[in-house]
Amino acid sequence: MAPYLTVSTGMVADEGLKKLVAPQAGPREYQVTWHRVLLLTYQHIASIYGLHLLTTRAAWPTIVFNMVTFYLSSLGVCAGAHRLWSHRSYKATRPLQMFLMLCHSIASQHSIFIWVKDHRLHHRYSDTDGDPYNASRGFVYSHIGWTCVNRHPEVQKRGKLVDLSDIFANPIVMFQKQHKEWLNMVMGFILPTFIPMYFWNETFSIAFHANQFRYILCLNGTFSINSLAHMFGTQPYDKNIAPSQNIITTLTTCGEGFHNYHHTFPFDYKAGEVGSFLNFSTSFIYFCAKLGLAYDLREVSKDVLEQRMTRTGDRSKDTYGVQFMRKQEMKEESAD
Ligand SMILES: [Zn+2]
Ligand SMILES: [Zn+2]
């Protein structure tokens, strides 16, 4: 991989463009993509039926398999598209990149290429019209609405300026971009339906609908970072930004809900202050580093973190993350 980009994520050469200051959402007209609305509606209904089948009729290997594919797809999004490719918070060997690319295809959230481009815009223009998931437009828009309407002109304009040179130079990400339709179909839907039917004689209906539940759960987990974690929670690191520490998104995304921390220190591979606690992606990256598959893990230093908390954090109430961090520090001090 190319060296770390010199500018922090969201790298956009936008001199001369209108300055967007959060929270901001100008008047706009929506063009609804109706086939997308219908597809998502069907998939949500199918996923509810899938949950019903999982809790009443599915064989136990199907339940275990469903959980495994959920965690794999979450890893593809969180440890892969987000922390590795969007933020370059660590480096990964080719085998690990291949694994994460396939996991991202299980999640079937478009392609890593588009994911990274949108996410860099999100960090650069958080909660403004340059942010694809602009939370200033409300919960529904930032959660799922943005995927069902035309892109805002500011997103289109500024999206062309995002520096994606590292992504263009990555053959694994570009392979997925080129073949995303069949990769997403095979990894995200055909194989997860076929495997339970072939190996333990699960019925088509149960295997198919259980997988729909897994897909929709992972999708809404990702969406909730853009909606819930930009609206509800605490801001112990920077009270001047909307992204917040949100326990619900922490639980639904395997550890991405420490969002005030993440937007304050986007280069930190942990995307949170608590290490592996409630943060499956951090455990995974740490484990891969032990195996030599991940390296150059970037972290914010304790000093910088404390200084930033003092300077911009809301200290009126400590979150569970901060409390956990303090307890860990006390343990380390008493062990010394
Ligand atoms: Zn965010
Ligand atoms: Zn991010």
Please specify the SSE layout and strand pairing.
Elements: H1 34-56, H2 60-86, E1 91-92, H3 94-107, H4 112-124, H5 139-143, H6 153-159, H7 165-168, H8 171-178, H9 180-200, H10 204-226, H11 247-252, H12 259-264, H13 280-290, E2 294-295, H14 302-312, H15 320-335
Antiparallel strand pairs: 1-2
Helix pairs in contact: 1-10, 2-3, 2-4, 2-10, 2-13, 3-9, 9-10
The structure holds zinc ion (2 copies).
Q: How would you sum up this structure, described in words?
A:
With 336 residues, the protein is mostly helical. It has helices spanning 34-56, 60-86, 94-107, 112-124, 139-143, 153-159, 165-168, 171-178, 180-200, 204-226, 247-252, 259-264, 280-290, 302-312, 320-335, and strands spanning 91-92, 294-295. The protein has one domain. The protein is built from 15 helices and 2 strands. The longest helix is centred in the N-terminal third of the chain and has 27 residues, at 60-86. The protein is globular and about 60 Å long. The structure holds zinc ion (ZN) (2 copies). One zinc ion binds at residues 122, 230, 243, 259, 263.
Please supply descriptive tags for the structure shown above:
336 residues; mainly alpha; two-stranded antiparallel sheet; 15 helices; globular; disordered N terminus
- The radius of gyration is 20 Å
Sequence of strands across the biggest β-sheet: 1-2
Overall SS class: mainly alpha
Rough outline: globular
Quote the average pLDDT.
Answer: 92
Low-confidence stretches: 1-10
Q: How big a fraction of the residues is strand?
A: under 5%
Organism: Ascotis selenaria cretacea (Japanese giant looper)
Transmembrane segments: 63-85, 182-200
Subcellular location: Membrane
Family: Belongs to the fatty acid desaturase type 1 family.
